[in-house]
Amino acid sequence: MTGRPRIRSTFRPTAPKPVRAAVRGAGALVACASLAVGCGVVPGVTGGSGDDSITVMTWAPTDTSATNKPGMPALAQAYARWINSNGGINGRKLKVLLCNDHNDGLAAAKCARRAVNEDVVAVLGSYSQHADSFLPVLEGAGIPYIGGYGITNAEFTSPLSYPVNGGQPVLLAGLGKALAADCGPVALVRPDTIAGDELPAMLNSGLEAGGHERAVDIRAAEDATEYSTQAEQALRRATEGTADTDGTALGEPTEEAGKGCVVPALGDRTSTFMDSFRRSRADFPEVRTGTVLGSADQSIIDASGGRSGPYEGAYVTGWYPVASDKRWDAMKKVISEQAFADNRIDAADAGTQTTWIAYTVFKAVVEDLGDGEVSADTVRRKLDSGFKISTGGLTPTLRWRFQDRLASVGFPRLVNADVTLQVVRDGRLEAAREGFTDVTETLQGAEVN
């Protein structure tokens, strides 16, 4: 077995600044391209200077050639309409601003500056691969970032970040642990991006915990229109051998030849990869697949052929219970009442689910503040006080501390290391085992650079 995977730690403990930094720019006024109706407020939601409303922001990429998450801001809109139709939070209306980060670092920073300029209380349930661009802006203004998608390591190091799930680290560690028992050689196909560079170490930490060799690391363009080269490379390497110490070269054929596994982790482009994979798979019928929620969900499985498609038998790790679980009924009721005709919202999408939980956390904080001031500072102080928040069983009870259990491996803000293991049976995504699996020890087994 090769050496342990290394996870790069980027943690630099800096205290959040209590005052607003002078980061407002004229360009910020046009940067927040709303995903529905211009750059501004949810339709029908009252609010503005002098009223008693609470302003928050949700951002995500949409209409791009790479990963898109339009359901996250759409769910935020529906949530605000529901809250406001029921009297607000402690009588305060919820005002939601939307922004499109365009999968671009400059646009992400402009969204953050817009949040500062509009004096938002928090950024909730958002997705961006460019945490290094937007988090410094939020930190300078003291604005908490609650429930980001967990796509970057920076979300688990910033003292202003309050993640509700374990992001890509726990999904891949959990998947690696599950595949270690059932797979021969494993090939990981992931984006050739900064965020993608972080994925192999996570998967390898789980594989190693199960006594398995490291995965072969295959890079791919995030916005490609086909992946035949990568699919053929992954299939060959999943059957002919394992990786050497740098995770790139083939070894000798293994006893498990023909029983390898391919792990596509390409976000929205995973379905594009699977089209290429299906065409290349004829000569490798025994190769199986495994992936993480966000790269595959029920709609993608259906579109790929269901029980006759390439996902049949695949393991899929997720952060939350399966979409059919009754614990999601409250969210589904809100979607039905407030966004029934909005096809951007998929209740089974991990981004939509994360946004729901982020707003659930924020609602609990504001309710606990009672009639007191609701500002970025008061919300942050409440979260930093050890305040415990229940999400109705969708996650463990959440509580953030400056240094948590995974600080030693560079994730001081990672407070939820639970994953669910699901499997595709007869074309349906089902729970492979009951309850959650905590992968804290798996991640702790990884060394830090």
Automatic annotation (TrEMBL):
Region spans: Disordered:
230-262
Q: Which family does it belong to?
A: Belongs to the leucine-binding protein family.
| Keyword set, alphabetical order | Signal
| Top-level taxonomic group | Bacteria
Claim: Signal is one of the keywords in the record: yes
Q: Where is the Leucine-binding protein domain?
A: 66-389
Record field: compositional bias (Low complexity): 240-252
Q: Does the keyword Zinc apply?
A: no
Protein name listed in UniProt:
ABC transporter substrate-binding protein
Matches recorded under InterPro entries = Leu-bd, Peripla_BP_I
Q: Which residues form the signal peptide?
A: 1-36
Species in which this protein is naturally found: Streptomyces broussonetiae
